[in-house]
Amino acid sequence: MKTDILDVLIELAKRKGKITTTTLSKKLGSSQQTISRKIRELDDQGMIARTPHHNGQVIALTEKGRGFLRKRFLELRDIIEYSKGEGISFGGNLVSGSGEGRYYIGQDKYFLQFHDKLGFRPFLGTLNIRMKSVHDIRTKNEMEKIKPIVVEGFKKEKRTFGDIQCYPCVVNRRVKGAVVIPDRSHHPPDVLEVIAPVYLRKTLSLKENDYVHVELRL
Predict the structure, then answer these.
(1) In terms of residue numbers, what domain contains 182?
(2) Residue 16: what pLDDT?
(3) 3-state secondary structure 38-96
């Protein structure tokens, strides 16, 4: 079987430490020439760190390499779960918003409904996720076919605030929240907003462009 860079990363992760190219080639059943070529590719992408060794060189995963594996794991898990009908889950990369979420979430008539209908008082702000894969966008479209919990719109000072469709979810398998889709959204179709009772960026130690997993709980 042809060795892929993903195979190399997985083997490095399984070793939970460092490994020489000689040992790596034996574990993967590939020639040292093949492994050396994959190692150069990974090094160029910043996914591994290399140091000299009397048997060749020692390779260790970098944070970027570990992040790549986490992203692939979540994407594969989503695909498997979705195909088996075990749940609806998807994800995307964290992106910064305009700050408008804080304004809308903080409106009294919205805020009270979130508490009554979703069971929590939301943090004043939304987590914005940009979907990139075909699977994630397809799943988002499937989600919108499901009957949502509706937070009703209202009028205030001659201004109309539209309904908000809500889908309870769990973020990164740790924090309960909800995907929210306002009738009047300023975001493009590939960006979704998530609310929760806590500041998700801080609670989940998220940074810009981190992959975020969302699993619906309907």
Answers:
(1) 88-216
(2) 65
(3) HHHHHHHCCCEEEEEECCEEEEEECHHHHHHHHHHHHHHHHHHHHHHCCCCEEEEEEEC
Same domain, 153 and 115: yes
- Are residues 205 and 160 part of one domain? yes
Considering the domain architecture, whether residues 133 and 211 belong to the same structural domain is answered as yes
Q: Which two tokens stand for residue 53?
A: 């060794």
pLDDT for res 3: 63
The three-state secondary structure class of 9 is: helix
Point out which residues pair with 149 in neighbouring strands. Answer: 166
pLDDT at 142 over 90: no
DSSP notation for 102-133: HHHHTSHHHHHHHHHHHSS---SS-EEEE--S
pLDDT digits (tens, 9 = 90+) for 39-65: 889 999 999 888 876 766 778 888 888
Q: What average pLDDT score do residues 68-81 get? A: 71
